[in-house]
Structure formats: structure tokens, C-alpha cells
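#data-curation
PF: Archiving a pair of folding outputs for the training set. Convention for this channel: one message per protein, sequence first, C-alpha cells after, nothing in between. First:
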Amino acid sequence: MKKKKAEPAEAPPYRDFQPGQIWRIGEMNLAVTMVGKLLVHYRQYKTQSRGSGVSLCSKTDFERFLVKGKATLVESKP
């Protein structure tokens, strides 16, 4: 007897990173500037001022950070 393949679950919204996305965690915003194969470049700034440098981390670490902080997607540019 053949086993049925499990249907792939829908990807959570945290997985599909696109440049131009802005995520909000409390009073802090994270703006995704560039997405590579394994890494995400993002800017972290308070809601009032926007003068920080670019940070870099892996996609899985960035996803964990968003889930842990209960982030919400504020803006997504095509």
C-alpha cells in the first residue's frame, strides 16, 4: 500500500519577505531593504525618526524575531 503524501501547509505570512515591506513591533518599525537567498537586509527605526543603518541576518532568524515580537505587516510595496 502506498502512503499518501501530506499536502504542504500554507506558508505563514512571515516567510514571504519582499523589499519594501515594513513590519511593526510595538513602537519599532523594520523596513526590509533587500532579500537574498539566505539573508535579509533591513532597517530598524522608531516610528518618529528614520536614521539607522542597515542590519543583516538570516531569513530564519528574522522570521523568529518577527514571530516572537508579534509583528504586523504595515506596508508592502510591489
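PF: Second:
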Amino acid sequence: MFVLGNFIAAAAHIIDIALTIYMWIIIVRAVLSWVNPDPYNPIVRLLYQVTEPVMALVRRWIPLRGMGIDFSPMIILLAIVFLQNFLVKSLLQLSYYFR
């Protein structure tokens, strides 16, 4: 059963790393929104392609767009922190159960 515990622990670490990387991508996108980036820059286009589906989903669920400030990055960051503290830690504790 220790193999299953190690697999779950490895999956938890990969999920944690992926969530951390996505959190930094969201932060960079939010900082870029303060300036006027070149929309034809490949890095800017990549950031928009990676983040826009999630941000559009949050904007659809929580329509705070009329206020002039886009709160979707903050809501996504809070969701990422929640997932890191709940999902990842739960998976790690589950992996210790199987070891």
C-alpha cells in the first residue's frame, strides 16, 4: 500500500506546483493590466490565452464588472490558496494513511 501513498503524495506535490505556477501567471497578468502591453507580444498573448478562460468563467459567475475594477484575479487567487490549503493538504494526509 505504500506505493499508493507515494503516488498520492507525488500527485499532491504536482498539483501544488501547478497551482503555484498558475497563481504567479495570474499575478503577472494583473500587473500587466496596469500598463498597456503590446497585444501582439507572444508572451502577453500566452498569458491571455492561459488565464482568460478561467477569468471569463469567474466574471460570468460574479458580475462585478460595472464597478470599474476587475476583481476576478483576486477571486482566482483566493480559490488557488483555498485549493492549496484544502485539496493538497487533504491529499498529503491521505497519502500518510496509506504509508
